[in-house]
Amino acid sequence: MANFLAKWTVSESEKASASFVGFANLPNQVFRKAVKRGFQFSLMVVGQSGLGKSTLVNSLFMSDIYEDATYEGAAYRMPKTTEIRAATVFIQEGGVHLDLTLVDTPGFGDVVDNTDCWKPIIQHIDSKFEDYLNEESRVAREALDDNRVHCCLYFIGPTGHGLKQIDIEFMKQLHEKVNIIPVIAKADTLTPEECQRFKKRILQEVQENGIKIYQFPDTDGDEEEAAANKKLRDAIPFAVVGSNSVIEVNNKKVRGRMYPWGVAEVENIEHCDFTTLRNMLIRTHMQDLKDVTNNVHYENYRCRKLAGVVNSPDPRQFQAPSRDPLAQFEVEKREHEVKMRKMEQEMEEVFEMKVQEKLQKLKDIEADLNRRKEQMKRALDQQQRELNDKRRQFDEDKRLFDEEHQKYMEELEASMRAGTTKKDKHRKK
Questions:
Q1: Among 32, 282, 357, 368, which residue's CB has the most CB atoms within a 10 Å radius?
Q2: Once rounded to an integer, what is the mean pLDDT over residues 291-297?
Q3: How far apart are CA 103 and CA 121, in angstroms?
Q4: 123 Cβ partners below 8 Å, 6+ apart?
Q5: What is the DSSP string of 331-365?
């Protein structure tokens, strides 16, 4: 960005010149408006669980975009179908605002039967194209939010044996809809020789299957840029290592992974291609990724969509828009009202469902309390019966004891009287 300003800055002597008109400041005006408006970028990460997608994204943008995940079990980690989870974060650097949309795909390739596991991803990409096309086709257009997927990082497991069938099928299904950049995950598990052989094998299989991954733009005679693009082409697929841990190595703090044999540094180009990927994705080719998305993938979708409408065999599927903007506005207004009523109905249904779930939960709690109450009542009655039995037994034992004691006292008293009578007779004699 600084180079851009230096290139297009007009000197004071040029401004003072009589031949200076002022249109040389147009790039500066464009630059100021772009910085004020901010930028949008949508990044999709696809790959099987456990390949370090979240860690790599956090490392790319030096932010805790993804918190440390906690898994409750195998069923929680592996949903039955591919899910789409999109989240937007706002990042600022040097006065430049970036609205970064991250699209995660948990569940992809994590089950035994992965048939058509890429369909939810295709539907998500097409839905974003459809939203952009609808916004672009409206009569009253405002600033368009560009939520189209500009780049897809596809993570390949470090097997060293080439691509799996699911890898090939996924890239063949999506290479005409999004910019695919293949990434070898957890490259620290491979030796440098294994990594280079693995890269060559992947590129060979990509070429054999006619897969179109992201191609770097032409340089138009710029030798420096041509050399940089050649270096990037040679690095594809990027072998990366992700880590959010900071380790001290030779009195220098670096991000990396500690092993018994040493430290795998994330930002060391001799250890992995993380820095190369970050520079390409963020610093040098982010705008080109957006341009290719808009000029190639979106235009292809738009042409197919409009051609399908025009050439539709059923004329009822297509209705030419009114030439009157007010009439078109009324049509859009009615569509919006229908959409809002539908959303309101869906929200009411969801609310009703939540209320029923809450009532059912309360009923279950009440039934559980009643069951526990009955159990405690039965236990208390049992204790009461046992206590009454013990009381009756005690009364019976006391009665027997009193009878025996009474009998003993009577016998003792009779014996004492008999002894007294004998003494009196002896005295008389």
A1: 282
A2: 90
A3: 10
A4: none
A5: HHHHHHHHHHHHHHHHHHHHHHHHHHHHHHHHHHH
